[in-house]
Specification:
By secondary structure, this protein is α+β, with helices and mostly antiparallel strands. Helix content is 16%, strand content 40%. Strands 1-2-4-5-6-3 form a six-stranded antiparallel beta sheet.
Length: 159
């Protein structure tokens, strides 16, 4: 099991966009299970008024995908961590297909992200998996592609 120190040692994300709380299982290079507790203290809930219906508290779908992708990033960097986006290899989101949402995620839910490496080709990794709440699938991921590129190649040339 891994907590915030190890997660922050692998991802450059920080509050409010660090969306992985804990890693409960890792099989390096193959699979990972991570948790994200959804709470009403997150900034995206700050402006909801007292008349907001329950469905208005749905966790934003882009953030659900982002949280799952961050879990994939932890798996991809497990054996070679580099949270510094100014040096070494930079993690880039390449694209996604087959992402389906099955039910709304609400504050109080604990997301269990299950990530599996489908395929690795050089510096590109393809993942698949799902997210569950209390054993119920809330999102399935057909494929997400992540690429790694040298930071110095991505940095604009000094003028």
């Amino acid at each position: 099991m891994s907590g915030q120190a190890e997660i922050r040692g692998r991802l450059p994300h920080r509050y409010p966009m660090l969306l992985v709380d804990r890693v409960t299982h890792v099989d390096p290079g193959r699979a990972l299970t991570a948790l994200k507790a959804v709470t009403c203290n997150e900034p995206w809930y700050a402006d909801l008024g007292p008349d907001t219906p329950e469905e208005g508290f749905g966790y934003p779908k882009p953030l659900l995908v982002e949280s799952w992708c961050q879990s994939a990033g932890v798996l991809a960097t497990w054996e070679a961590p580099n949270p510094d986006v100014l040096a070494g290899q930079v993690m880039l989101f390449g694209g996604m297909t087959g992402v389906e949402f099955h039910r709304t995620v609400l504050p109080g839910d604990v997301l269990e992200h299950r990530v599996r490496v489908e395929r690795r080709v050089d510096d590109t990794v393809m993942f698949e998996g799902e997210s569950l709440v209390d054993g119920e699938t809330v999102m399935t991921v057909g494929r997400i592609v992540m690429a790694f590129r040298p930071a110095d190649v991505l940095r604009p040339e000094a003028s």
